[in-house]
């Protein structure tokens, strides 16, 4: 199962160390909900998705089971 479609239960049960999710940049509600569950924005894929005649940006968010790795804080 691709990680961007994996249910959070996979992390809680210890089967996955981290999750990566991609959402449309304009989807503020999804970004807010994910942030409340510990996801942080890793980057943006500019004009990555073509839909209804327009290109859209995708935001990449990730969450680690044990929080942010120490190497990321340096």
Explain how this protein is built.
This protein has 74 residues and is an alpha+beta fold. The protein has one domain (3-68): Aminopeptidase. It has 3 helices and 3 strands, in the order H-E-H-E-E-H. Strands 1-3-2 form a 3-stranded antiparallel β-sheet, with helices on one face. The longest helix is centred in the middle third of the chain and has 9 residues, at 28-36. It is elongated and about 40 Å long. 8% of the residues are buried.
What is this structure, in a nutshell?
With 74 residues, the chain is α+β, with helices and mostly antiparallel strands.
Reported for the largest beta sheet, the result is: 3 strands, antiparallel
Name of the CATH first level: Alpha Beta
Give the N-terminus to C-terminus distance in angstroms: 32 Å
Mean pLDDT: 79
CATH architectural label? 3-Layer(aba) Sandwich
Please state the structural category.
Answer: alpha+beta
Neighbour order of strands in the largest sheet = 1-3-2
